Amino acid sequence: MAEKLIITVLVFLSVFIPFKAIKAQQPVTTKPNVIVIITDDQHYRTIRALGNKEIITPNMDKLVKGGTAFTQAHIQGGLSGAICCPSRAMLLTSKNLFSLHEDGQYIPVSDITFPELFRSNGYITFETGKWHQDKGSFNRSFALGDNIFFGGMHPPATGGQYRPRLNHYDRNGLYNNPFWGDQFSSVYFADAAISFLKKQQHNPQPFLMYVAFTSPHDPRTAPSWYGHHYRMEDVSLPENYLPRHPFDNGELQIRDETLLPFPRTEEAIRKEIARYYSMISEADEQVGRILETLKKTGKDKNTIVVFAGDNGLAMGQHGLLGKQNLYDCAIRVPLIFKGPGIPAGKLINKYVYLNDIYPTLCELAGIPVPDSVEGKSMISAFGNGNFNGRDHLLFAYLNLQRAIVHRDLKLIRYNVNGQSFVQLFDLNTDPFEMHNLAEENRYRAKLMSMDSLLNKTMEEMGDFCDINKPGWGYPQKWTMSEVKKLNP
Hints:
This protein is 28% helix and 17% strand. It is an alpha/beta fold. It folds into two domains: 33-390, 3-Layer(aba) Sandwich (Alkaline Phosphatase, subunit A); 393-486, Arylsulfatase, C-terminal domain (2-Layer Sandwich).
């Protein structure tokens, strides 16, 4: 009798419950949305959740705690002083430094950007903020955008961060009608991102949004209204602070290095770091506004958020201020993934490049990786198995500096006016690169081994220089016109 009753009930349910109600209970497979947030000149040691207890970054901290942070993420360097240009080009195309065209200023059609790829796979793509590449590649990459900044920095002479020269999206790709903003740059970029997210709230089509801040790049003039202000008494000097760099690294007179006079005084460096932290905390405030809007739209549970810096900055370390060097402070950057399928609170201490983001996003979204991509997917870092990262990393700056890191050993070689300098650091015991081991006999074998690896990797990556030749084959420092001719 009981069995007959159960069968009768099941028949009744199958007849009288609407089909749509049953259908709604089935799992729906959708592509994840993607938000990539890039800051300008933010080095690795500038997030509280990653160890800096003097800085206030509650929203970046939430990304770290809610996602997976790669603590050995690096850029490869650049062949000109504007490091953010090749760095962003490598991120966008997943090419290595020596495969870029015009040091990243120009992205040809053959180098498919990841927004361009996602766009061709059904995503709505949107950009706001800095674009340091050509306008043609911008419009191939993005179907929409607003408050777009074409260039490297906001010049102080025209109002700096408080008067950004921006553009609305131009379907023709000409961008002949820029406008001058009247509020802080990152507010414009966050406002545009927030407006886009609100418009996507009820749109089932997946989106990819690229938000490229110009903070904390100089001029470092953060507003005070956002809620936090640093004094020089609030910050410490870097452990590797020096008044001067110990030798000519070939780039001591570039603009970044002339923002403060030599020797660097402790007071001047503290003031500069306080301004730098203020800029980062203000950018953090804007990141928080974007993430809060994402949550309010209900899209947060199906959105992958990637946060990264485009390069670091010395800020008094080694007697330097800028990014035109191959020390950890200039080439190591924050990199965080958060979203569905990504573990929370996980730290990955393996070598990766920023151009590894591209193939990782492809795998997370189920999109085939193009043949033009040279990066390596990091997706196994989000699973339970082993993630080994890269065995070693090559870094380059102009034809002046080359470096390699392998198993916590780091070799830097210099080619400056016919002079050759060598540095060898054990990053395990000397993370601030303060003790040069190159002249110690006990490290002679390791120095030779690192030299061999440097040579091999330069050749494999198509480096234009050969450190076995006098002047590395280029005895005079490259000009920008010469760099453009290397791979036009």
